[in-house]
Write a structure and sequence with these properties.
101 residues, alpha+beta, two-stranded antiparallel sheet, DUF5785
Length: 101
């Protein structure tokens, strides 16, 4: 797939290889973006590459296809919903992640 930027470059991971949830969280301004609409967030960032693990990169919209909530009141609510969706759908590769489902 042709990405809008290199998933491992400055725009994708601040010059270092970072994965999944951390990359998505960096797109949010905790002070100014809430309440946050899932659909508006995906419209703005949906094509951005998200590195899931050392082999797999997916567009952010693919992950958010599995986030059930439509709006988030704060950063914690956003993180929790995103984490649930990522673990449930196999986008969370960290060892022991099944303990958080």
């Amino acid at each position: 797939m042709d990405w809008p930027h290199d998933p491992d470059g400055e725009a994708g991971s601040e010059g270092m290889r970072k994965f999944g949830h951390a990359i998505i969280a960096k797109k949010i301004d905790e002070e100014e973006d809430f309440p946050l609409s899932r659909d508006e967030f995906v419209a703005e960032y949906g094509d951005d590459p998200i590195r899931i693990d050392y082999e797999r990169v997916v567009p952010m919209r693919e992950i958010f296809d599995h986030v059930e909530e439509e709006e988030f009141d704060d950063f914690v609510e956003f993180h929790q919903a995103l984490g649930r969706a990522m673990r449930r759908e196999g986008y969370w590769f960290y060892e022991g992640s099944e303990a958080f489902v």
